[in-house]
Amino acid sequence: MSHHLFLLSPSDTPLYSLTHFSSKPAQTTTTSPLASNLPSWSTSAFAGTLTALSGATSATQAYHAQGGTVRMGGGQDRHVIQMIANASLDVIEEIVRKDNLMYLKSVDKFNEWTVSAFVTPGNMKFVLLHEARNDDGIKSFFHEVWELYVKTMLNPFHTAHTPIRSPVFDARVRASAKKHL
Amino acid sequence: MELPAFASLAHVRILLLPVGNIRRSTFDNWASEIRSIESIPLGDIPTESKDERARFMPNPLASGHIHLSYQSHPPASVHNALALFRPSDFPLGVVGIASCSHSDSISTTLASFKSTVKDVSLHKAAFPVSTNCFVFEEGDANLDLGDRFPGLVVIPSMMANKRVHISTLLAGLCSHILGDFATVMQSLESPLGNEHLNASLFPSLPSAGELPRSLDPESAQRDSLPPLPSFNSQPDLGVNGSAKPKTSAFQKRMSSGPGLIPSRTASLPSTPTSAAAKKRPNLIGAASSHGRLFKVLADLFLLAGRHADSQIWYTEAIALFKGSPHDTAWHAAALEGLATIPVIEAWSSGNATANGIDDKQEPWQDIVDKLTQATTLYHRSTPHSEPDRSYPLLAYLYSQSVIRHTSLLFAIWSAKGWGPHAFGKMVHPGLNPYLPSSSASTKASYADLERLTTITGITRTQIAGILAQVHGPWLLHLAARERIGTLQTVAGMFGALGYLRKEAYILRELLGSIMDLIVCGREENSGARASGAGLGIRGTLVGSSSTTSGTVGVRENPRVEGNDSILRIIKHICRVHGVDIESVKLVDIGTLGTTATCNAADDAEEEDLSESPADPFGWPELQIGIIREAIAVAEALPDYPSVAQFSLSSLKTLHPVMSQSDQLHLYRTATRALTTAIRRGDRRTVEYWAGKPIVSIEMLPLPLIRLPIEKPLSLLARADEQTGVNTILTGAKDPFLYNPRKVASGQTQSVLVQNERFEVVMTLRNPFVFDLELESVALSTSGARIESEATSIIIPANTYHPVTMTGKAVEPGMLTIRGCVVQAPGGLPREYVLPLSTEEEEETRSWRRSAIESEAGRSKYAGLESRPWKRMSKRDSKQASKKVTVQFLECKVVPEQPLLRIRRTSLTHAAVMLYNGETSAIRLTLENVSSLPIDLIRLTFDDSTIAPAQQALADGELSVFETYETEYDLIHRPVFVWDGGRDTSRVDPGEKTTVSVKCVGKVGCTRGAIHVSYAYIHRHNETLGKPPDVFHTRLLSYPVIVTVYHMLECHAMDISPYSRITAFASIAEDDDSAAGQAQRALFDVENVADWCLFSVDVRNTYGSPFEVTFERREPGVSFLDCMSTTVLVPPGSTTRIVLPIKKILLSEERISQPIPTLSDRQFVVVKSNLSLAEERAQRELFWYREELFKAVRGRWRETGGMRSGELSLRQQRMTQPMLEALRTETARVQMSLIRYEDGKAIPIAVDPSGSKYLPPPNEFVCLRTRVINLSPGEMVLVANLSLEPAQHTIYQGVLSDIPVGRLAPGDSYETELPVAFLSRGRFDILAEIRSLNVSESSNPVGRGDLRAVVDEDFS
């Protein structure tokens, strides 16, 4: 069971991202029978062609990979995860304008992913893609990340657009993820 | 693919087909005419009399409608399995549209229509289809057919209101269709039919012939497709053994009402329960439940517009489906149908509150519930049999259901609530239901969208949440067309909701699907062709180059329609992700002949973009991925200019975040694509993209010998009278410490010469990691015309690169260098201007930069609002930027100028070696190498002594005397003197001329320069305009290295009164040579008192002997025949030179003049604080010294050599005693001793040198003192005498204040004093004359002395 955390600046640029594989057992979500027995996408000629043409490895497979048969673990295409996180900003932005909550619980769902978000007063958005419900854990995780983020922001050279590369921050976020997710 | 509307379940679908030869426009015209009839009132349907077919016919007074929807394409064959499950998806009627002008062609038209229908329905059309063909008359053809062709209707062109007619015809068609429904139903109502219905998840209609006891109905049906007419004609329906339902129905109809409303009673039980009760026993023999049957029945009633019946049967069916695991899909479908009914009814009544609802719930809540349930059911349903076929269908149904659900909410939301508008949208949505309907082009703002939410209470999140359900892996089950259709709808809805990122996400998938089809289709084609050819290179992905048999390459014309739309989708996706993929514009070459010019503001903006601290927008990883995809799509289309555009735009905008390999890859792709595009003759190309390359531009100054110097013509007139002293003295320095004019003209323009080359250095910048190739870089100028060639260069990666451009101005005038025109390979040229960085400009720029700086890092606008172009437009730095006039680099081009060069000189290695004071001549031969004559040559000089002297003068620390000395040195003893005079020699083209320069050795001079200024002034005036008041000179410089040996130096100059002794000592008595005689002659002076002796020490510090000659010049006699003394000064020795010179007396006026300054300096401040007397003394010293130097001149000559020169005495100072000796006294005193013998005066003997009197001792002699007034005025004088030693003398009378009386000028007075010398020895007698009428009579005006020696014995 994996979680993907993105810290997005007000201009939608990721400042920090984390992929966390939870040790907790994956809850068996109700999968639709429709999602099974898919035709293998490799028969689709364009997938191969486009990949070959663009010279890229991952970028163009986005829409094929999301239907990939491997659902758990590392099989998910990173690009797709990012696309989903990016797309969920639409909903987050709308809700933020109406409610003044910071923690937006399960704000969006896309494919198998549930998106939860946390919006700081500085309009930083923490976006977490997860599969199972774990409201309390996620909430406390977000609060810890926020605290860490605020500590990072105390650095006068750190603006709202500076990518976070601090190893300390990274280690602490990982520890927090391990604890709560 | 048109996606079904919300109420599509209630739509009778009709296929419109073109028949025969019909033009597309005509077809479209008539088709749209037909399409406009969207619904037909039930009352208009003609009811047929046949009983069995009248089952679905409307009541005569029914108020409902049959809704029609039209298609131009038959449904996909894979969906045939849904024929019974969802009859509304299939065309139930076919209308052919033909256009005819001759009656003869009618039959062929009909034939072709029939064959078309057959073709279309060739795949197993599961449902009976009613056909009709409309033939529209063309022109004035009059086709009177009568009833010759059944199934074909001619619509005369004469007919006025065709729409009504068509509507009637369609009503007839509908009636036919409704009849067919009954037929189908009949066949299903049999137990066998029911079994058939329950055989599989998606059963097919049993064919009439195969119905009994077919073991494998599916395959049988597929194999043996019954021909259409059999359905239409229904020949043996009754024979099927399904008499029971028919009879029952008949019975019911009979029983419930006699004849008046037979059709209505035929199927409608009075209550559902009774109907069910009656039905069930009828079908007891069947093994399966009747749920599916009831559902089909309800579907058909819904289509027929009989909603009440439909609702009853749906409810029945749902009741049966509950608990049946195999029928989840059917259950869901029934719920969908049930949900449709209220909407249709509401539409019919046109009233929002048509169906009574309680106040708590929204009116649509019930529908939503049903649909949610249906969606869930579809989601859960599992195909138990034949999964291969069922999965796609289930996925299709599921996605349809989700979209239906969403479209309900969406329609209500977008129509601002539950009302007729919303119903209209749901029932007849039109062609583009999900594009923003209110305003075609402008995007709805946030406020607009929120307003809809507030009105309706449906949030966008809600809609999006439901819509997102459609998205999942199951999309892959769908066939390509359905997938594209679904994705298109989903994307459209997201877009309309304002969820642009989600829209972009879906659009990417959509694009993938479409491109998949394009590429696959192309590969099939080219594959087939290649296999046919055998030899050919297999068609590559570009799809347009493949070979046919043989070696000739055949190029297909690629079909480009539709490419634009795909590219538009790409651009939209990229914009959402913050990549302006059109930042480099595509330009059609044909439309634009000139180079694109831009103003400075654009540049500044661009500069801002590039300069602004990276405040990035978006997700770099995603952006790069999307760009790659975009390029891949454009390449696959293929659209090469777009490929180039995309690559270059993204390079331009994203290069800061791109990796090196990405940049390289994009650059190569773009280059390749442009090459291909050009090769293929594409008319479009990209504009210049690589940012502003030019950083600085500067004019290389012309070499000094070519540089023209502007001078006013008035200077020529003045030059003749002026000596040019000033410039040398002051170094042409400005007399003002601060001259504002000079500051203003500080930025001097460069001066260029017509028809001569000049050079400009540009610094270009390449911010990319690859070597940027520029096809051409040219100067962009205005003003005077120039000739300049564009060059192609390669700027190395990530550097600043200087480029030297040469040009030639072909006409005089002002030349403005605006910047450069650059062109990348395959692109368009673009001009970049570079304004001069004036102070104002700098200020503006720094202001703007600081504004940007202060805005950076702040995020007032978040999300999509902060995309770069939006940010730019909101920035106040942008808004406040005002228009300033820009200045450019300007040069003045002057008319063509002549050119001189030094052909040869008389010097070797340009070096001169001189003794101090020596003069030598330098000759320069100049050649005119231009085609213009030279009519003015001027020489100026410079040497290393001038600058320090000028500096000393400028500092002003020198005393007046020193100042004069320095100035004198500068003016009267220059190192170089032009020998030739000022003759304006004319030098014609190609001719030579010689100038000679005198060079004087001056100690301290190490180098000098000869500057030849020349010009062509008297030009032929070509125009009638006023001749210019300036001319231009050029300067040719010849540097000279000067070495001056310092060999003789003078010191210890002295002037003493002429005394016989000194003179005597100076003359060697025994020397009888010529020199000695000359010497004697020199010292032989008549009146000793008029003379004084000038002496100076000359030392030879050099290694060879020199002869030194000093000459004296007497007034009125030239130096040539004046007296001189010559001495040989050996090396290392010092020789004293003595020369008698005549005393001088300068007039009072002369002396009272201040020490002059030779320059015209304005502010000469007298710094000395001397008293009047001291000042006077200083002046006297000065003027007498000047007079002395006029009288005495020193020269030297190399012994045994030819070299000679002058010896300067200017270093020598004059002191007061020397002055006294030199100056003629005011009152001369002549003293003598005489003795009276017998009343006769006898002079006392004098010693041989004539300097001493030898009086006898102890004897009175007379001291005669004679005073002569030599001054110009008369004076009253007294004399004082003193005798030393006084105690050894006796005198008679007084010694002091002896009155002399008033003496007129030239008069004399004699007085005598008897004196006796009492001892042996030397006696000095002094006389002092004082003036009485001069106030400050402290100084005596005259002195006299006399020496007497008594050496005789006192015997």
UniProtKB/TrEMBL annotation, chain A:
<dbReference type="Pfam" id="PF04628">
    <property type="entry name" value="Sedlin_N"/>
</dbReference>
<dbReference type="InterPro" id="IPR011012">
    <property type="entry name" value="Longin-like_dom_sf"/>
</dbReference>
<dbReference type="InterPro" id="IPR006722">
    <property type="entry name" value="Sedlin"/>
</dbReference>
<dbReference type="GO" id="GO:0005737">
    <property type="term" value="C:cytoplasm"/>
</dbReference>
<dbReference type="GO" id="GO:0006888">
    <property type="term" value="P:endoplasmic reticulum to Golgi vesicle-mediated transport"/>
</dbReference>
<protein>
    <submittedName>
        <fullName>Sedlin</fullName>
    </submittedName>
</protein>
UniProtKB/TrEMBL annotation, chain B:
<dbReference type="InterPro" id="IPR058567">
    <property type="entry name" value="Ig_TRAPPC9_Trs120_3rd"/>
</dbReference>
<feature type="domain" description="Trs120/TRAPPC9 third Ig-like">
    <location>
        <begin position="1051"/>
        <end position="1223"/>
    </location>
</feature>
<dbReference type="Pfam" id="PF08626">
    <property type="entry name" value="TRAPPC9-Trs120"/>
</dbReference>
<dbReference type="InterPro" id="IPR058563">
    <property type="entry name" value="Trs120_TRAPPC9_N"/>
</dbReference>
<dbReference type="Pfam" id="PF26251">
    <property type="entry name" value="TPR_TRAPPC9-Trs120"/>
</dbReference>
<feature type="domain" description="Trs120/TRAPPC9 fourth Ig-like">
    <location>
        <begin position="1241"/>
        <end position="1335"/>
    </location>
</feature>
<dbReference type="InterPro" id="IPR058564">
    <property type="entry name" value="TPR_TRAPPC9_Trs120"/>
</dbReference>
<dbReference type="InterPro" id="IPR058568">
    <property type="entry name" value="Ig_TRAPPC9_Trs120_4th"/>
</dbReference>
<feature type="domain" description="Trs120/TRAPPC9 first Ig-like">
    <location>
        <begin position="694"/>
        <end position="896"/>
    </location>
</feature>
<dbReference type="Pfam" id="PF26282">
    <property type="entry name" value="Ig_TRAPPC9-Trs120_3rd"/>
</dbReference>
<protein>
    <recommendedName>
        <fullName>Trs120-domain-containing protein</fullName>
    </recommendedName>
</protein>
<dbReference type="GO" id="GO:0005802">
    <property type="term" value="C:trans-Golgi network"/>
</dbReference>
<feature type="compositionally biased region" description="Low complexity">
    <location>
        <begin position="262"/>
        <end position="276"/>
    </location>
</feature>
<dbReference type="Pfam" id="PF26254">
    <property type="entry name" value="Ig_TRAPPC9-Trs120_1st"/>
</dbReference>
<keyword id="KW-0333">Golgi apparatus</keyword>
<feature type="region of interest" description="Disordered">
    <location>
        <begin position="208"/>
        <end position="276"/>
    </location>
</feature>
<dbReference type="Pfam" id="PF26283">
    <property type="entry name" value="Ig_TRAPPC9-Trs120_4th"/>
</dbReference>
<feature type="domain" description="Trs120/TRAPPC9 TPR region">
    <location>
        <begin position="371"/>
        <end position="678"/>
    </location>
</feature>
<dbReference type="Pfam" id="PF26280">
    <property type="entry name" value="Ig_TRAPPC9-Trs120_2nd"/>
</dbReference>
<feature type="domain" description="Trs120/TRAPPC9 N-terminal">
    <location>
        <begin position="9"/>
        <end position="349"/>
    </location>
</feature>
<dbReference type="InterPro" id="IPR058565">
    <property type="entry name" value="Ig_TRAPPC9_Trs120_1st"/>
</dbReference>
<dbReference type="InterPro" id="IPR013935">
    <property type="entry name" value="Trs120_TRAPPC9"/>
</dbReference>
